[in-house]
Amino acid sequence: IYEALLVQDNIHLPHRDRHVSHALEQLLVSSAMTKEPVTLKAGTTVSEALKTISGLPHSSYPVLDDGTFLGIVTQARLRRTSAEDGNERTVKSIVQSCPHVFSDYPLVRAVVRMQQSDSRQLAVLDNRDNKNFVGLLTMSDIVRAHA
Fold first, then answer.
1. Rounded CA gap, 4 and 12, in Å?
2. Average pLDDT, stretch 90-110?
3. How many CB atoms lie within 10 A of CB 121?
4. Long-range contacts of 18-23 (CB under 8 A, 24+ apart)
5. Which of 69, 76, 114, 131 is at a distance of 20 to 30 A from 20, taking alpha carbons?
6. Residue 117 CB: number of other CB atoms within 10 A?
7. Region 12-19: what's the mean pLDDT?
8. How confident is the model at residue 132 (pLDDT cuts 50, 70, 90)?
């Protein structure tokens, strides 16, 4: 009776038997990602990298080798390496792997990837060339896009 009255007033509620799409299924990674994050070059020394990121608010940085994504290096790892007399080591030698998504993925798929990899950020790679870095997607980016 209540549903009939709602329909009579031109109010249509989604039913349980039909799939209701979520906003994160409709938004793409490319619309939420940070397109130009601060990156470090693979051949940069640890001491140069620490100077580059000095005063920046981020805790981790993508490492690129001629546009090819190698992984992530954290500020803490750079400092630890520097403290262990590793100032002349290259960033490439201490890079850590990082999960990735493609720019044309829906955001819901990125959230699943974050959950599976226990990560709060993902590298975004070009869907045509799966090594070409195009951005970084963080949980904050997803929340901002959803809002």
1. 10
2. 93
3. 22
4. 22/108, 23/146
5. 114
6. 14
7. 62
8. confident
* Residue 60 and residue 74 in contact, taking contact as beta carbons nearer than 8 Å: yes
Indicate the SS3 state at residue 73.
strand
**Angstrom distances, CA of residue 26 to CA of 4, 18, 51, 103, 144:** 30, 17, 40, 13, 15
DSSP three-state, residue 25: helix
Strands 60-65 and 68-74: antiparallel
Q: How do residues 43-55 score in pLDDT, each as one tens digit?
A: 999 999 999 999 9
* Average pLDDT of span 86-103: 93
Supply the Cα-derived Rg of the chain in whole angstroms: 21
Residue 71 pLDDT exceeds 90: yes
β strands within the chain, DSSP E: 40-41, 60-65, 68-74, 100-102, 121-125, 133-138
Nearest to 102 by CA among 75, 71, 125, 73: 125
